[in-house]
Specification:
This protein is α/β, with parallel strands linked by helices. It contains 24 helices and 21 strands. The strands form four sheets. It has a seven-stranded mixed β-sheet. The chain has a six-stranded parallel β-sheet with strand order 2-1-3-4-6-5, with helices on both faces. The chain has a six-stranded parallel β-sheet with strand order 15-14-16-17-19-18, sandwiched between helices. A hairpin with a 3-residue loop joins β20 and β21. The radius of gyration is 25 Å and the shape is globular. The N and C termini lie far apart (83 Å). The relative contact order is 0.10.
Amino acid sequence: MAKQNVAEQFVDILTRAGVKRLYGVVGDSLNPVVDAIRRNPSIDWIHVRHEETAAFAAGAEAQITGSLAACAGSCGPGNLHLINGLYDAHRSMAPVLALASHIPSGEIGLGYFQETHPELLFQECSHYNEMISNPEQMPRLLQTAIQHAIGRGGVSVVTMPGDIASKTAPEKTVEHALVTSRPTVRPGDDEIDKLCRMVDEAKRVTLFCGSGTAGAHAEVMEFAEKVKSPVGHALRGKEWIQYDNPYDVGMSGLLGYGAAYEATHECDLLILLGTDFPYNAFLPDDVKIVQVDVRPERLGRRSKLDLAVWGDVRETLRCLTPRVKPKSDRKFLDRMLKKHADALEGVVKAYTRKVEKHTPIHPEYVASVLDDMADEDAVFTVDTGMNNVWAARYLTPNGRRRVIGSFSHGSMANALPQAIGAQFVDRGRQVVAMSGDGGFAMLMGDFLTLVQYDLPVKVVLFNNSSLGMVELEMMVGGLPAYGTTNKNPDFAAVARACGAYGVRVEKPKQLQGALKDAFRHKGPALVDVVTDPNALSIPPKIKADMVTGFALSASKVVLDGGVGRMLQMARSNLRNVPRP
């Protein structure tokens, strides 16, 4: 039997860890690894047009499957392109292994062609970042990297010079069992007892939920019923907690709606469940706060805590709920449910008034129709910016749908590459990229990846010919909009030129038919919808110092706008409120 080289051993270990694909762009230093993949039937090389796409696609695959995904970049500029997608994956706790191939090992440190230092470049966006400098480090170094990515939730980077990849792997190496899933973390009894006492002593409890409530929907609902608590959520918590929720009071934050803000400020105990909600201006500073999180470094970094609980949300609630005393007083919960319904009634007109005749088309209307027509188990990938607004307010979660975006890193151009990764996981599942024209144009070259692999991704392009969120930021800051206008082509014609299905929509009455035809099409499709750049209205009370960029806010008000089917949910929940 022929001896393996290091590249072949590297690929074999990836397949043992469950990796099905390696996303990347080929290059000389990567050639030994790509050739090893060519000869291994258990893994595919996915040729994208830009390495940033490779990292975003791997991150999306990891978020969909919960398993390790992988990407690669050739030496110097190739692996440098990975960094934006790796930052996003790392901040999303998506287990991703990145291979940064390197210049010849004997030339490192001598200013060689395309030389960079990956071990420095990727330090901040990884849990583990090391270089294989000799064959004897394999397979232990790669196994360690895999365990960091899976065990801690995030990115590991392995740098490997091309000449090392071609060398013969050691005959006798220790291969131990690989970690392929994460354990649950249970808080200690002391913390559970303290939390139990705080809940029992509180008259008004509010839960605010983030992505850490994934898999804990039933436990959150059971606890909310027992203590009669309103349940609000952050954007990343929406898909996990809003559906089948009779205690829902909406979302807080700059894109928020409903009564979540009031519920978090008018309680006397706020429990943050699995959220690293960054907008501390929306959190209260005069109520008791408990935070539950599986990542201890996140505890207390947004607000002053009265109790920090290190634990998985589901396991924590399973321990806590049987111990707390049931509450019978629903006054606070019912008042928040009514406030929530009233708030949604007040803004719903923003997208219903003459919307089917308005040209350019209201983007709210596009999102609402898309929500109605998409499959019940669809995966939505959402570009940063105004598309975050439409996704937050119009996409209806149901426990089967997924909504993925660059919600923590806030990168442009994420929707298309994330859709690539999501669609490779399951070609039969509907994947919809909610793209903005600015984000789509930035990585438009990878629309060709959809065509090359005949991936049936449906790109719904919200085309307002501007960087809408940036324009809004400038307006709120008292600045005239400048440098935000895009001179766009007919994107539907571009899609057709690439060999995909493309249709342009300029009138509201064309929208449903265009989406229906695109969804019916078996291959990749793009629906270019010309939308109103002035769609989002601003509350009259907003001041110039209330918003500084998309990621920071000193404001305690939220932007106005429609809310889609969430109004129906609020009305339904309101029926449970006893009438006097």
